[in-house]
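Justification of resources, computational component.

The compute hours requested in this renewal are based largely on the per-chain cost of generating structure records like the one below. Each record pairs the submitted sequence with a full structure-token output. That output is archived, and it is also reused by downstream analysis tasks.
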Amino acid sequence: MTTTRGPRRVTRAKRTQQPTPPAPPGWLSDDERRAWSEARGRLPVELTAQQEQQLEAYAVERARWLASEAHLREHGLVYLLRTDKGELTKVVEAPEVKIAARAQDRMLKLGGQLGLGRSRA
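The structure output for this chain reads:
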């Protein structure tokens, strides 16, 4: 019994072009772009116009929250007001405390609307 082997024909599945996610908007700061890219990687490729706006707002709030938290770690939660003689007159909460709290609230709300809070198994 003889077998003839001819040229082997290999059929491969055609690769479908996956749409690439868009680049972050140019008006975002470096920190905001980083937050945008991190969040964008966890979202579907196609977003509605509303979702894109929510993502931009999320990135801005996340960058604001991170900056405020970094400031608070470095400088503390309160400012000590003193007289010219160095006597303590007042202890004032740093404005970054409220800024961080508001930014975190907004960030969590926007993240929830985008589905960033859910685990994807």
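The helical segments are 30-40, 49-75, 95-114. The chain has three helices and two strands.
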